[in-house]
Fold this sequence. Notes:
The protein is an alpha+beta fold.
Amino acid sequence: MIKYGFVFLICISILFLGLTLPETFLDPTRDPVPNNQKVAHSSHCAGCHGYDETGLALVDSEGNDVSIFDDWQVSMMGLSAYDPFWRATITHEVSQYPSAKSAIESTCLKCHSPLGSIQAHLDGRLYSYELMLEDSLGLDGVSCSACHQQPAQNLGKGHSGNFTIDTNRVLFGQFPNPFQGPMQLYVGFEPKFSDHIYSSGVCAGCHTLITETLQDDGSPTGNFFVEQATYHEWLNSSYPAQGKECQTCHLPFISDGVVIATDFKVLEKRKPFGLHQYFGANTAMLDLMKTNRAMLGLPEGPPEQAWDESIANNRQSLSNAAELTLSPVTVDNDTLYFTVQVKNKTGHKLPSGYPSRLAWLQIILKEEHGQDTLYANGQLDAQGKISGRNFPYEPHHQVSTSSDDVQIYEMVMGDINGQLTTRLNAAFEPLKDNRLLPLGFRTDHSTYDTVAVWGGANQDPEYSIASALGQDIIEYRIPLHGNNGVGELDVSLRYQTLPSRWMSDLFEHDSISEVAQFKSMYQDYTTFQELIDLVHIDSIDLSPSGINPIESITSLELFPNPLTGTTLHVSLTNQKLLTNGLRFEIITSSGVSIQKGVFTQRIMMNPTLPDGVYFFILYDDQSRLMCIKPFALL
């Protein structure tokens, strides 16, 4: 009687205010979340935060649908429990370490199936993969409660799925003075204002994942491996100080005022409004799941165009992740010379997240307007593998002198024997981690132990110098083999979430049903790749210049580098360059000349120059290019 008396009061209040009454309020079958359930299924939120047929709520200023529930459904958050790659991986790991089944599944389910895992824990039950497959809460993925029930207390302190949930049946939101009645009545939860929901700490609990290293028999070694530390990467960047959170990019805000709940005509518009498609980079998985909806048993609902929009938004997000800049291209001694500056524009390492992901540089030199390829570096073959890639992994390169020297940005896992592995629970330490670092990255930051650089990149001064600026610089020397016509050059940064080599290791275990199912879906995605950025240069004269061979950038040393003052010291390590009449020029990364003159070993820089990467160019007395060297100004 108390419940229905409350319903009556709410209805009278709504009618008095001139609001329309949602049909769900009068539907006796649509009860609030049961009292013994401390988290809310997304279906309880869909009634008010889903598509509005009247077009009044959850639309932007141009009338485009921005409904929270519908956008979330076609995001990797909404699909996390159905992800076939994840399902194949968790069942594969369990098959390799059956004695550690409970521990492995518990860790994985906390993030891919958080609500089912949380409720089971509160009920004193052990949650398993098999239970998740039959559990609507588990299959709800990373849904509303997983984020909006996190309190400000202990925010950002958890990892590996161990984050705090407020079990007092409250949902935190970013807008002050929430209209509480409908949510209290229909859902049985109380909406509360708290702007901590804007904080990156909400993401920390799952995007800092530490796994236990196991022996072959499944027994613990006592060691732990940082599978991903995206939140720590963000902490070790310039972006926290700038007030840029994870949500800034991945839950982008629109300035339009939006009515955030349906059926209530007098609700004020709220802004800024965050789009809930969770813009990221995993276009491959979104496309694969869209194609295989029936096989995966995905809930019906999102139309075709919703999937296409989500994929397009993720692709746009990826295209903003990095930028390429080339130094002046020169030809000498039957060799094409240039340097590539790769700038990471994200707030974390690129790529970040699950360690299968990689980005790499592709270099294609062709005859201009012709079909003949003169040089190729970083192309995918018919099996989706990067041509020339070394096994067990490609080393980091400072200088690339052949088509087999492919610059691949990745984290490579090694087991307790120092061998390459793709199994998370076998991982002991990285063999390589040269992923592009975020702006402001520091080796003396408190998080460095979880986000360290591993392998050859530590010996590359260009990587170390440019890393504080979120960049890497690599020199290319392309042999021309006597081709002396006119060419065109394409330099691109490419990306994969599901690379063929990683999948091949997994598919060796296709006797596992989930692995076999994913393998059948993957066949059309072996060569799936995304383009992040492309620089095209045409009309390159490849004919011999007749001048002295250009020296490598290693013949010239600049210090301090990065430069923090105004005096740049220059040292020539190759004595044959010490001839009379040397001149220098300093240009920006976009090729703008900012300073030139007669060469000396101490050059005074303009103190008003902005921070960035610059190129020091040395010419001989005949204005012939001798060498180019990048340096950073901080």
